Amino acid sequence: MVVRRVRPVDIQRTGAIAKGLPFTSSCVILLPVVFKGYWQPMAVWMSAWNGTRGERLLRHVRHCTSFPCRLRGLTFRRNLDDDEGLLLVGHREGRADTAIHMFFVFFPIAVIWMDRNGQVVDTQMARPFRPLYVPCAPARDVLEGPPTLLQRVQVGDRLRFGG
Question: I want to staple 121 with a disulfide (CB 3.0 to 4.6 A). Which of 37, 87, 106, 137 is the partner?
Fold first, then answer.
C-alpha cells in the first residue's frame, strides 16, 4: 500500500497560521489533517471475483480500511457505476461492527457481508436514507455495490479480491 506522510511543513504551507487567520479558520483548514492522522493512506483499487462461480463481479472496488473511509462510505455520492464498488474491511467479526447507515446516500445499493474467509454470510438491498442495516450473522467485511450485484451473489459463495 502506498502511503503519504503528512509533515508539519505541509501544514505551514497552507498559510493558515502564517497569515494570522482567526483560530476558527485555521481549524477548518487543519481539521482534515488531524482527523486522518499522521499517516494518510492512498486509495487502493482492485477487482471483486466470485470464487464459487468463477466470474468477475466488479472491475473497480475501492479497498477501505481506515475509520474515516469506512465512515464516509458512499455518502454524498450521486451515483455508482455498474462496475464499481466499495469494500469496507473490518478488524474483527461481529454484527454491530459491520452495520451500515444510508444517511446521505442518494441511490439504492447492494450490501454483501462476508466473514474473514470471504464467505458471504448475508446480502441485502439498502435503500437511501435508512438509518441502519445489520447482518443476520457475524461478519468482518462489507461489499457495497450496484443493485444488480445481488443477482450474482448468494449466501455461501466465497468472494476474493485482487488485481
Answer: 137
- Neighbouring C-beta atoms of residue 71, cutoff 10 Å: 11
Pairwise CA distance, residues 19 & 79, whole Å: 39
Taken in order of first residue, the domains within the chain and their CATH numbers are 3-40 (no CATH), 44-162 (2.60.120.1140)
DSSP 2: -
Q: What distance in Å separates the CA atoms of residue 16 and residue 29, rounded to the nearest whole number?
A: 7
Question: How many beta carbons lie within 10 A of that of residue 96, not counting itself?
Answer: 8
Phi, psi angle pair for 2, to nearest 5°: -90, 130
- Total-model pTM: 0.75
Answer for the pair 76, 101: CB distance below 8 angstroms, yes or no.
Answer: no
